[in-house]
Amino acid sequence: MAKRNIAATKLQEEDALIYVGIVNENQNTVLQTRDGYFLRFPAAEIPEKKKGAVGVRGIRLQKNDELEHVYLFEEGTESRVFYGEKEVFLNRLKPAKRDGVGTKTRK
Questions:
Q1: Are 90 and 81 in contact (CB under 8 A)?
Q2: pTM
Q3: Residue 37 class from Cβ within 10 Å (0-12 exposed, 13-18 middle, 19+ buried)?
């Protein structure tokens, strides 16, 4: 049997993979950018795509900003991370729609 390589993503030269994992519809997704924008939305808003698809946008990035972290947590659980010196409670972020700008958090 011959081995074949299959492209799983269509990443561009400057792109990087941030997160790979199993997501269930009961979870919330939080995207964090390098400049401190946080966007929380239900994981159910992420559509499934075929292997040849490029993907879907999760957050609208500001100029020269980039995605830094992806967090998942179950509804009803407390989840917190640190951004700089500040503690951010992910479950207290205002829920929004996927493909938004997010909320700016100070360090």
A1: yes
A2: 0.85
A3: buried
Question: Model confidence over 68-91: pLDDT tens digits?
Answer: 999 999 989 999 999 999 999 999
* pLDDT given at position 14: 84
**Which 8-state DSSP code applies to residue 100?**
B
Q: Parallel, antiparallel, or unpaired: how do β-strands 67-74 and 27-33 relate?
A: antiparallel
Quote the CA–CA distance of 9 and 17 in Å, as a whole number.
10
Query: Looking at the predicted structure, is the pLDDT value of residue 100 above 80?
Result: yes
45: tokens are 């808003």
